[in-house]
Amino acid sequence: MRSVDECFSKVKAVSFRYISSQETSGEKFRNKDRIIRSFLIPICFWISKKAKKKSPLIIGLAGGQGSGKTTISSILSLILKKYFKLKVFKISIDDFYKTKKERKTLSKNKHPLLLTRGVPGTHDINIMLDFFRNIKVKSFKSLKLPKFNKAKDDRYKRKHWYKLKSRPDIVIFEGWCVGAKPQNLRQLKKPINSLERVHDQSLKWRQFVNFQLKTKYKKLYKQLDSLLYLNANNFNLLQKWRIKQEKKLWLKAKNKKNLKIMNKKEIINFMQTYQRITEQMFKDAPKYSSIIMNLNRNHQIQKIKFN
Question: What is the CATH architecture assignment of 4-306?
């Protein structure tokens, strides 16, 4: 019988190496032993038991901006590969953003706010659906999948895309709105921040985004076998964490010349486009997620709940 202790001894070095690569001198990952041993390893045991032989297990991992999705999904991936010997492919919904040129067209045809990446409607749904369909094919050969450069707010050139050479056992599909559900008209009508009050008085943007959730994104999220959710206490905490994240992006960047780093005010404005869906997910996602990871104010997993 494989145990948590045995698993921890095998994955500790590789997990700590990844964590230290993400740290900066002023921002350290605290209680890493406890978080890996008490929370992430049990989640990996749960995932490994669900792994299917005939087709990949598709796990969604959701959480607000700055909640730690990339870090958590990366450590889960390392543990599943190292200890459970599973082939894992991890990708973010962010990598499927439409190009800047496509978003410009969308902003002219539908609503100016759609130039800003993030909300449902600004991703290329067809590429995502093709991806989920292709990894289930028995005669899988290889796949190239887009990679998004947030610093330049545009897709990388094709030569830098992900190359998936063999069919994975597990796919971890992470993103801030993964699994989000639409609202009703009564909920949509009430603006929740200054961006909606000033720039979406007609409700056109809100209705467009909501319609995407009702239709194309509903079809997309049906591809998920399970959803894991990183649950923060409130939206203000996410803003604080996202500001730290942007600073880290600057500190870790080798080429700072063409970097588009946002200041605090820009981040707060940017996150207003995310606020409606994020706050709705605070209420909804714990009800339909398979695993809820509750985060404390110090940006650490405090407890997990298996549904």
Answer: 3-Layer(aba) Sandwich (3.40)
